[in-house]
Structures are given as structure tokens and as C-alpha cells.
Design a protein that fits this description.
Elements lengths: L1 E6 L7 H17 L6 E3 L3 E4 L6 E3 L7 E5 L4 H18 L3 E5 L10 H7 L1
Antiparallel strand pairs: 1-5, 1-6, 2-3, 3-4
Helix pairs in contact: 1-2
Amino acid sequence: MDAGFDMVPRLSTGAKDACTWFIFLAYITDKYKDDPLVELRDKYILFNVGELPTLPFEGHKLLRFSSKISGDPRAKRYIQEVSVVAKLMFGPRVVYWDEHYGQFGHYDWNEVQVYQ
């Protein structure tokens, strides 16, 4: 079972969205700065749980933040925590879903793969 959130509509490349994304990433980076399972890479933040969910440094590239949560109990915690912060920052654009409850993402998986 997968869970996560989709950004609907996705962020633009404009200054307002870019600034809000920067603040969001700064919060996430600070929150997990001492967490050995969270890594800053060249172009994204990597969560070393489940299916290795990532947050790109360029917000307009994010369609989905998700992972399989049924195999790794740690994955669900990260998905939920990041989703809550995203919802606070981006409001109704953040569409949370959880396959366990019969909910599925807004975007087709093929579309998501193109942007990752």
C-alpha cells in the first residue's frame, strides 16, 4: 500500500511559488537535520525509507511525494509529517491520499515518473 500527497495544481516557476517552496524546504531540512535517514543530495532531499521518497529543490518539478508504507513502518511517519507541513504551507493544493483507505493520487503514475 502506498500513501503520499500530490501537488494539484503543481507549483509554477514564479517567484511566489519558488519562495514558498524554499521556506518549506528550509523547514524540512531543519526538522530532519540530525536524522541519519534524511539526506541532502545535489538536486533533492532523499528519505531513506520505503521507496525512497524525494523532495526536489525545484518545487515546480514535484507532482507527488509518496512511498510504499506497508513494508517499512518508518516510511508512514515521514510521509505523514511532510504531508502535514506541506498542507500548512500550500493549503488545498496538497492532496493527501492513502491506498489503505481506497484513496489514490490525482496524477497517473506514468505522469509522475516523467517529472521525477
